[in-house]
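4.2 Preliminary Data

To establish feasibility before requesting continued support, the project team ran the inverse folding procedure on a target of 246 residues. The structure was first converted into the token representation described in Section 3, and no sequence information of any kind was made available to the design step. The complete token record follows.
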């Protein structure tokens, strides 16, 4: 098994800790301890954008390393099935908690789709920078195109809005469509490929060299999928108990 590079896992751990703090505040609001607008206030929407971007950029970096180390498709699909299965669990859980706005194409759903696309385009080299910019730019162009050509409003429907070419955000608790987020993962892949050639030390070394807190954060980054699935049920449980005791 090829060694993992610790700075990628540290970057992922940073995103996980930030996500935890964000979701803890969301749960406090959900149970009425605070009063915040997580859907429209730029303080919160901006943080969500940054957290998702960090996760997807890191996923792109990881794919660059995996391809560089010769990871085969069998191992890729094994991990992909874990991500896709976790996405289904998220959907099931959200149906229970938010039946009117359940998650059908959130972070894990988006990552599952994007991983396949990014892996298939890994050999496109510097073109990935331009493709990333195009994917991000389409987010801003799509509403104008739909306004100009009303027939394109079909893209707002649930059958196609996972593409992200929309003028109206769907009602769902988490939404990470291909546009613009595929662009962020493409940039992660491109940045990882560049770093592996020109600045490999930027990506770190094998995690065996890490000690203390650093080693703990590296391990955390390695178990990101499990952590992602468990952190919200734990946080919700803690806040629910506090609400009941209060």
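Position-by-position output of the design step:
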């Amino acid at each position: 098994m090829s060694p993992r590079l610790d700075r990628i896992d540290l970057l992922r751990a940073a995103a996980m800790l930030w996500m935890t703090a964000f979701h803890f505040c969301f749960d406090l609001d959900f149970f009425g301890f605070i009063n915040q607008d997580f859907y429209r206030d730029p303080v919160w929407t901006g943080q969500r954008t940054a957290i998702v971007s960090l996760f997807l950029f890191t996923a792109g970096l990881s794919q660059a390393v995996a391809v560089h180390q010769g990871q085969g498709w069998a191992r890729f699909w094994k991990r992909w099935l874990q991500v896709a299965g976790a996405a289904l669990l998220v959907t099931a859980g959200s149906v229970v908690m938010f039946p009117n706005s359940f998650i059908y194409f959130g972070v894990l759903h988006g990552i599952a789709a994007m991983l396949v696309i990014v892996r298939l385009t890994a050999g496109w080299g510097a073109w990935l920078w331009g493709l990333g910019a195009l994917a991000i730019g389409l987010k801003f162009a799509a509403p104008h195109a739909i306004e100009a050509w009303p027939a394109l409003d079909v893209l707002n429907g649930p059958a196609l809005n996972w593409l992200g070419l929309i003028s109206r955000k769907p009602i769902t608790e988490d939404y990470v469509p291909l546009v613009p987020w595929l662009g962020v993962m493409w940039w992660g892949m491109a940045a990882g490929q560049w770093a592996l050639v020109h600045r490999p030390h930027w990506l770190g070394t094998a995690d065996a060299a890490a000690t203390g807190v650093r080693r703990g954060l590296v391990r955390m980054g390695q178990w990101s999928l499990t952590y992602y699935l468990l952190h919200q049920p734990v946080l919700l449980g803690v806040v629910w108990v506090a609400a009941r005791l209060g």
